[in-house]
Amino acid sequence: MSGSASGPVDTIFGRILRGEIPCDAVYSDDLCLAFRDVAPQAPVHLLVIPREPVPSLAEAGPEHQALLGHLLLVAARVAREQGLEGFRTVINSGAVAGQTVFHLHVHVLGGRAMAWPPG
Ligand code: AMP
Fold this sequence. Notes:
HIT family, subunit A; five-stranded antiparallel sheet; 2 helices; binds adenosine monophosphate
């Protein structure tokens, strides 16, 4: 599903935000929701998503400046609350970069050593 040409489209994350399908939530506020990734790539793998359905980072605009900062602060908060010593944040933007769900999300990965460069 792509939201790039026609603006925001509904995604599985929209369904999670509306409570239509369950998630394992770890944090929620007026602007965002954080929950465990269903296919974790590390012992701790969380997703932080805005309630506003911005399709990708590439499609965010100046009006999203505060929201983007908030998502990163929440990413650090949930990492800390999970007891992570260090963590990696990833935002895939566009299919070529590995984005599969076209609702902006910040991956928070931790609990194991991370390699660089990422694949
Ligand atoms: P990306 O490939 O960057 O778009 O990341 C999408 C992420 O969403 C993947 O890591 C998926 O495992 C995850 N995901 C997809 N569906 C769900 C779901 N229902 N609950 C939790 N995570 C999901």
